[in-house]
Amino acid sequence: MSSVSVLMPIYRTNHSHLKEAIESVLNQTYQDFEFLILNDSPDDKNLEEFVLSYKDKRIKYFKNEKNMGITPSRNKLISLATGKYLMVMDHDDISLPTRMEEQVAFLEKHTEIGVVGSFVKQMVCGKEKSYPIENDLIEKNLMFSCAVAHSATMIRASVLKENNIFYEEEFSPAEDYALYCRLIGKTKFYNIPKILFLYRDHAGNTSHKQRKKMDMATFLIYEMVHRKNSLLWKEVLKKIILKNRVYLFGIPLYVFKQKGHTIEDKLHLFYRANIFHEKKSFFFGVFSRIGIGKKIIYQVFGISFCQVKSKILYQGG
After folding, report:
1. d(Cα 279, Cα 245) in Å, to the nearest integer?
2. What span, in angstroms and rounded, lies between the C-alpha atoms of 112 and 137?
3. Cα–Cα distance measured from residue 268 to residue 32, given in angstroms and rounded to the nearest whole number
4. How far lies 72's CA from each of 37, 64, 89, 207, 316, in Å?
5. Cis ω before 252 (30° cut-off from 0)
6. pLDDT (tens digit, 9 = 90+) per residue, 250-304?
7. Which residues lie below 8 Å from residue 228, measured CB to CB, with a gap of 6+?
Protein backbone atom coordinates (compact mmCIF):
# COMPACT_ATOMS: atom_id res chain seq x y z
CA MET A 1 0.00 0.00 0.00
CA SER A 2 1.36 3.42 -1.01
CA SER A 3 1.60 6.17 1.58
CA VAL A 4 0.10 8.81 -0.73
CA SER A 5 -2.92 8.65 -3.03
CA VAL A 6 -2.90 11.35 -5.69
CA LEU A 7 -6.50 12.13 -6.67
CA MET A 8 -7.11 13.61 -10.13
CA PRO A 9 -10.58 13.88 -11.71
CA ILE A 10 -10.50 14.69 -15.43
CA TYR A 11 -13.19 15.96 -17.78
CA ARG A 12 -12.64 16.75 -21.46
CA THR A 13 -9.20 17.99 -20.53
CA ASN A 14 -6.87 19.72 -22.96
CA HIS A 15 -4.25 17.05 -23.72
CA SER A 16 -1.25 19.35 -23.49
CA HIS A 17 -2.40 20.64 -20.10
CA LEU A 18 -3.10 17.10 -18.90
CA LYS A 19 0.34 15.97 -20.04
CA GLU A 20 1.97 18.65 -17.90
CA ALA A 21 -0.22 17.76 -14.91
CA ILE A 22 0.41 14.01 -15.12
CA GLU A 23 4.14 14.35 -15.65
CA SER A 24 4.46 16.82 -12.78
CA VAL A 25 3.13 14.04 -10.52
CA LEU A 26 5.22 11.24 -12.02
CA ASN A 27 8.37 13.37 -11.64
CA GLN A 28 7.95 14.02 -7.92
CA THR A 29 11.03 13.48 -5.77
CA TYR A 30 8.86 11.41 -3.42
CA GLN A 31 8.01 8.14 -5.16
CA ASP A 32 5.79 6.12 -2.79
CA PHE A 33 2.39 6.95 -4.23
CA GLU A 34 -0.53 5.68 -6.25
CA PHE A 35 -1.94 7.99 -8.91
CA LEU A 36 -5.72 7.68 -9.27
CA ILE A 37 -7.15 9.27 -12.42
CA LEU A 38 -10.94 9.29 -12.79
CA ASN A 39 -12.43 10.15 -16.17
CA ASP A 40 -15.80 11.89 -15.79
CA SER A 41 -16.25 12.18 -19.58
CA PRO A 42 -16.53 8.44 -20.39
CA ASP A 43 -17.58 9.10 -23.99
CA ASP A 44 -14.29 10.90 -24.69
CA LYS A 45 -12.28 7.99 -26.10
CA ASN A 46 -9.36 10.20 -27.10
CA LEU A 47 -8.93 11.33 -23.51
CA GLU A 48 -8.99 7.73 -22.32
CA GLU A 49 -6.41 6.67 -24.90
CA PHE A 50 -4.19 9.56 -23.89
CA VAL A 51 -4.17 8.55 -20.23
CA LEU A 52 -3.67 4.87 -21.06
CA SER A 53 -0.64 5.76 -23.18
CA TYR A 54 1.23 6.18 -19.88
CA LYS A 55 2.58 2.80 -18.79
CA ASP A 56 3.65 3.84 -15.30
CA LYS A 57 2.33 1.22 -12.86
CA ARG A 58 1.52 3.84 -10.27
CA ILE A 59 -1.27 5.17 -12.48
CA LYS A 60 -4.67 3.61 -11.79
CA TYR A 61 -7.23 4.66 -14.37
CA PHE A 62 -10.97 4.66 -13.72
CA LYS A 63 -13.94 6.07 -15.58
CA ASN A 64 -17.50 6.79 -14.59
CA GLU A 65 -20.23 4.94 -16.45
CA LYS A 66 -21.84 8.32 -17.05
CA ASN A 67 -20.96 11.91 -16.25
CA MET A 68 -21.34 12.39 -12.48
CA GLY A 69 -19.99 15.88 -11.94
CA ILE A 70 -17.02 17.07 -9.93
CA THR A 71 -18.32 16.54 -6.38
CA PRO A 72 -19.34 12.85 -6.73
CA SER A 73 -16.13 12.24 -8.69
CA ARG A 74 -13.97 13.67 -5.90
CA ASN A 75 -15.79 11.50 -3.36
CA LYS A 76 -15.39 8.42 -5.53
CA LEU A 77 -11.64 9.03 -5.69
CA ILE A 78 -11.52 9.24 -1.89
CA SER A 79 -13.33 5.91 -1.63
CA LEU A 80 -10.87 4.30 -4.07
CA ALA A 81 -7.78 5.65 -2.31
CA THR A 82 -5.66 3.42 -0.09
CA GLY A 83 -3.02 5.95 0.95
CA LYS A 84 -2.48 7.47 4.37
CA TYR A 85 -2.43 10.89 2.74
CA LEU A 86 -4.60 12.27 -0.06
CA MET A 87 -2.90 14.68 -2.46
CA VAL A 88 -5.39 16.80 -4.37
CA MET A 89 -4.43 17.38 -8.00
CA ASP A 90 -6.42 19.16 -10.69
CA HIS A 91 -6.17 18.10 -14.31
CA ASP A 92 -4.55 21.22 -15.77
CA ASP A 93 -2.23 22.38 -12.98
CA ILE A 94 1.38 21.55 -12.09
CA SER A 95 2.90 20.28 -8.85
CA LEU A 96 6.50 21.35 -8.43
CA PRO A 97 8.94 18.40 -7.96
CA THR A 98 9.30 18.54 -4.17
CA ARG A 99 5.65 19.22 -3.34
CA MET A 100 4.78 15.68 -2.28
CA GLU A 101 8.02 15.14 -0.39
CA GLU A 102 7.67 18.35 1.60
CA GLN A 103 4.00 17.86 2.44
CA VAL A 104 4.47 14.24 3.51
CA ALA A 105 7.45 15.21 5.68
CA PHE A 106 5.40 17.94 7.31
CA LEU A 107 2.43 15.67 8.07
CA GLU A 108 4.70 12.95 9.41
CA LYS A 109 6.31 15.40 11.79
CA HIS A 110 3.12 17.25 12.82
CA THR A 111 0.48 14.64 13.58
CA GLU A 112 -2.00 17.27 14.82
CA ILE A 113 -2.21 18.75 11.30
CA GLY A 114 -4.81 17.22 8.99
CA VAL A 115 -4.58 19.58 6.01
CA VAL A 116 -1.38 21.07 4.64
CA GLY A 117 -1.29 23.45 1.70
CA SER A 118 1.25 25.83 0.20
CA PHE A 119 1.61 29.13 -1.57
CA VAL A 120 0.84 29.03 -5.31
CA LYS A 121 1.78 30.80 -8.51
CA GLN A 122 -0.50 31.46 -11.45
CA MET A 123 0.99 30.18 -14.68
CA VAL A 124 -0.56 32.62 -17.13
CA CYS A 125 0.09 35.93 -15.37
CA GLY A 126 2.91 34.83 -13.06
CA LYS A 127 1.17 36.25 -9.98
CA GLU A 128 2.20 34.64 -6.69
CA LYS A 129 -0.42 34.06 -4.03
CA SER A 130 0.25 33.58 -0.35
CA TYR A 131 -2.13 32.33 2.34
CA PRO A 132 -2.30 32.49 6.15
CA ILE A 133 0.28 30.04 7.51
CA GLU A 134 -0.77 28.95 10.99
CA ASN A 135 -3.99 27.21 11.99
CA ASP A 136 -5.43 30.08 14.05
CA LEU A 137 -5.30 32.56 11.17
CA ILE A 138 -6.42 29.99 8.61
CA GLU A 139 -9.56 29.19 10.62
CA LYS A 140 -10.35 32.88 11.06
CA ASN A 141 -9.87 33.57 7.35
CA LEU A 142 -12.09 30.61 6.48
CA MET A 143 -14.94 32.66 7.94
CA PHE A 144 -14.92 34.78 4.77
CA SER A 145 -12.64 33.13 2.18
CA CYS A 146 -11.07 29.84 1.19
CA ALA A 147 -7.78 30.28 3.04
CA VAL A 148 -6.23 27.12 1.60
CA ALA A 149 -5.52 26.52 -2.11
CA HIS A 150 -7.50 23.32 -2.70
CA SER A 151 -5.44 21.83 -5.51
CA ALA A 152 -2.25 22.50 -3.54
CA THR A 153 -3.35 20.55 -0.45
CA MET A 154 -2.58 17.19 1.06
CA ILE A 155 -5.15 15.80 3.49
CA ARG A 156 -4.76 13.15 6.16
CA ALA A 157 -7.25 10.48 4.97
CA SER A 158 -8.20 9.42 8.50
CA VAL A 159 -9.46 12.93 9.32
CA LEU A 160 -12.11 12.70 6.59
CA LYS A 161 -13.13 9.12 7.29
CA GLU A 162 -13.24 9.34 11.08
CA ASN A 163 -15.40 12.47 10.95
CA ASN A 164 -17.50 11.28 8.00
CA ILE A 165 -16.67 14.46 6.09
CA PHE A 166 -16.71 14.46 2.31
CA TYR A 167 -17.37 16.88 -0.53
CA GLU A 168 -21.01 18.04 -0.63
CA GLU A 169 -22.99 18.51 -3.84
CA GLU A 170 -25.06 21.23 -2.15
CA PHE A 171 -22.03 23.51 -2.18
CA SER A 172 -20.70 22.68 -5.65
CA PRO A 173 -18.71 24.18 -7.36
CA ALA A 174 -17.28 25.55 -4.08
CA GLU A 175 -17.28 22.08 -2.50
CA ASP A 176 -13.61 22.41 -1.54
CA TYR A 177 -14.25 25.55 0.53
CA ALA A 178 -17.15 23.81 2.29
CA LEU A 179 -14.97 20.77 3.05
CA TYR A 180 -12.39 22.91 4.85
CA CYS A 181 -15.09 24.76 6.77
CA ARG A 182 -16.51 21.41 7.94
CA LEU A 183 -13.04 20.50 9.22
CA ILE A 184 -12.77 23.52 11.54
CA GLY A 185 -12.38 22.14 15.05
CA LYS A 186 -11.93 18.60 13.75
CA THR A 187 -8.27 19.00 12.81
CA LYS A 188 -5.67 21.71 12.25
CA PHE A 189 -4.47 23.45 9.10
CA TYR A 190 -1.10 24.68 7.89
CA ASN A 191 0.17 26.36 4.71
CA ILE A 192 3.83 25.81 3.90
CA PRO A 193 5.13 29.34 3.14
CA LYS A 194 6.65 28.33 -0.15
CA ILE A 195 5.42 27.97 -3.74
CA LEU A 196 4.95 24.25 -4.39
CA PHE A 197 2.18 24.48 -6.96
CA LEU A 198 1.44 26.23 -10.26
CA TYR A 199 -2.19 27.10 -10.94
CA ARG A 200 -3.51 27.55 -14.48
CA ASP A 201 -5.92 30.47 -14.31
CA HIS A 202 -7.87 30.75 -17.57
CA ALA A 203 -11.40 31.29 -18.88
CA GLY A 204 -12.06 27.54 -18.82
CA ASN A 205 -11.65 27.27 -15.04
CA THR A 206 -14.73 26.30 -13.08
CA SER A 207 -14.46 29.54 -11.10
CA HIS A 208 -14.86 31.49 -14.35
CA LYS A 209 -17.32 29.27 -16.22
CA GLN A 210 -19.71 28.89 -13.28
CA ARG A 211 -19.27 32.28 -11.62
CA LYS A 212 -22.92 32.82 -10.67
CA LYS A 213 -23.26 29.29 -9.27
CA MET A 214 -19.97 29.73 -7.42
CA ASP A 215 -21.21 32.96 -5.85
CA MET A 216 -24.46 31.36 -4.68
CA ALA A 217 -22.61 28.36 -3.22
CA THR A 218 -20.22 30.69 -1.40
CA PHE A 219 -23.12 32.47 0.30
CA LEU A 220 -24.51 29.10 1.44
CA ILE A 221 -21.11 28.25 2.88
CA TYR A 222 -20.96 31.59 4.71
CA GLU A 223 -24.31 30.81 6.33
CA MET A 224 -23.15 27.32 7.30
CA VAL A 225 -19.72 28.20 8.67
CA HIS A 226 -20.96 31.27 10.58
CA ARG A 227 -23.78 29.27 12.14
CA LYS A 228 -21.56 26.37 13.18
CA ASN A 229 -18.74 28.61 14.43
CA SER A 230 -20.70 31.55 15.82
CA LEU A 231 -18.21 32.49 18.53
CA LEU A 232 -15.28 32.44 16.11
CA TRP A 233 -17.27 34.46 13.57
CA LYS A 234 -18.12 37.12 16.16
CA GLU A 235 -14.45 37.36 17.09
CA VAL A 236 -13.44 37.71 13.44
CA LEU A 237 -16.18 40.20 12.66
CA LYS A 238 -14.79 42.65 15.20
CA LYS A 239 -11.48 42.83 13.34
CA ILE A 240 -12.36 42.84 9.67
CA ILE A 241 -11.90 45.82 7.37
CA LEU A 242 -12.94 46.45 3.78
CA LYS A 243 -10.11 47.33 1.42
CA ASN A 244 -11.26 49.14 -1.73
CA ARG A 245 -9.01 49.65 -4.74
CA VAL A 246 -10.21 52.21 -7.30
CA TYR A 247 -9.31 51.99 -11.00
CA LEU A 248 -9.94 54.71 -13.57
CA PHE A 249 -9.89 53.40 -17.15
CA GLY A 250 -8.01 50.34 -15.87
CA ILE A 251 -5.29 52.36 -14.12
CA PRO A 252 -4.95 51.93 -10.31
CA LEU A 253 -5.86 55.28 -8.79
CA TYR A 254 -5.99 54.91 -5.01
CA VAL A 255 -6.86 52.61 -2.13
CA PHE A 256 -9.16 53.38 0.77
CA LYS A 257 -10.13 51.25 3.77
CA GLN A 258 -13.35 51.10 5.75
CA LYS A 259 -13.35 49.75 9.30
CA GLY A 260 -16.89 50.20 10.60
CA HIS A 261 -17.51 51.07 14.26
CA THR A 262 -20.24 48.63 15.28
CA ILE A 263 -20.99 44.96 14.58
CA GLU A 264 -23.81 46.15 12.30
CA ASP A 265 -21.30 48.29 10.39
CA LYS A 266 -18.97 45.31 10.09
CA LEU A 267 -21.74 43.10 8.74
CA HIS A 268 -22.61 45.78 6.20
CA LEU A 269 -18.97 45.89 5.05
CA PHE A 270 -18.84 42.10 4.83
CA TYR A 271 -21.85 41.94 2.53
CA ARG A 272 -20.70 45.05 0.65
CA ALA A 273 -17.57 43.09 -0.29
CA ASN A 274 -19.71 40.31 -1.66
CA ILE A 275 -22.08 42.06 -4.06
CA PHE A 276 -22.81 39.47 -6.69
CA HIS A 277 -24.43 40.15 -10.06
CA GLU A 278 -26.36 43.23 -9.03
CA LYS A 279 -27.16 45.76 -11.75
CA LYS A 280 -28.57 49.24 -11.22
CA SER A 281 -29.12 51.90 -13.84
CA PHE A 282 -29.90 55.54 -13.25
CA PHE A 283 -30.12 58.87 -15.09
CA PHE A 284 -32.24 57.45 -17.92
CA GLY A 285 -29.88 54.58 -18.55
CA VAL A 286 -26.93 56.85 -19.36
CA PHE A 287 -24.99 55.83 -16.26
CA SER A 288 -25.03 52.34 -14.76
CA ARG A 289 -23.58 50.63 -11.72
CA ILE A 290 -22.96 46.88 -12.00
CA GLY A 291 -21.82 44.51 -9.26
CA ILE A 292 -19.94 41.49 -10.61
CA GLY A 293 -18.12 39.20 -8.23
CA LYS A 294 -16.27 41.43 -5.78
CA LYS A 295 -16.07 44.53 -7.92
CA ILE A 296 -18.36 47.38 -8.88
CA ILE A 297 -18.20 48.74 -12.41
CA TYR A 298 -19.42 52.21 -13.36
CA GLN A 299 -20.37 52.78 -16.98
CA VAL A 300 -21.50 55.65 -19.16
CA PHE A 301 -23.33 54.74 -22.37
CA GLY A 302 -22.24 51.13 -21.76
CA ILE A 303 -18.53 52.02 -21.60
CA SER A 304 -16.70 51.20 -18.37
CA PHE A 305 -14.69 54.07 -16.95
CA CYS A 306 -14.29 53.21 -13.26
CA GLN A 307 -13.98 50.06 -11.16
CA VAL A 308 -13.92 49.54 -7.41
CA LYS A 309 -12.57 46.16 -6.28
CA SER A 310 -13.33 45.27 -2.68
CA LYS A 311 -11.71 42.71 -0.42
CA ILE A 312 -12.33 41.73 3.19
CA LEU A 313 -9.19 41.56 5.34
CA TYR A 314 -8.74 40.27 8.88
CA GLN A 315 -6.73 42.68 10.98
CA GLY A 316 -6.30 40.51 14.06
CA GLY A 317 -3.04 39.61 15.76
Report:
1. 20
2. 16
3. 50
4. 14, 10, 16, 18, 37
5. no
6. 888 888 888 877 777 777 777 666 655 455 666 566 777 776 656 778 788 778 8
7. 181, 184
Q: Do the Cβ atoms of 174 and 217 come closer than 8 Å?
A: yes
For the chain, the structural domain boundaries read: 4-205, 238-314
Q: Say how far apart CA 76 and CA 93 lie, in whole Å.
A: 21
How many Cα neighbours within 13 Å face the side chain of 223? 8
The tens digit of pLDDT for each residue in 175-222 reads: 999 999 999 999 999 999 999 999 998 655 555 457 778 888 988 999
Task: For the chain, report the end-to-end CA distance as a whole number of angstroms.
Answer: 43
Answer yes or no: are the C-beta atoms of 5 and 34 closer than 8 Å.
yes
d(CA 251, CA 287): 20
Q: What is the pTM of this model?
A: 0.88
Q: Which class for 236: exposed (0-12), middle (13-18), buried (19 or more C-beta within 10 A)?
A: buried
Average confidence (pLDDT) over 87-92: 96
Give the per-residue pLDDT at 314.
87
CATH number of 4-205: 3.90.550.10
Predicted local confidence at residue 285, as pLDDT: 64
Separation between Cα atoms, residue 129 and residue 118, nearest integer Å:
9
Q: CB neighbours of 75 closer than 8 A, spacing ≥ 6?
A: 166, 167
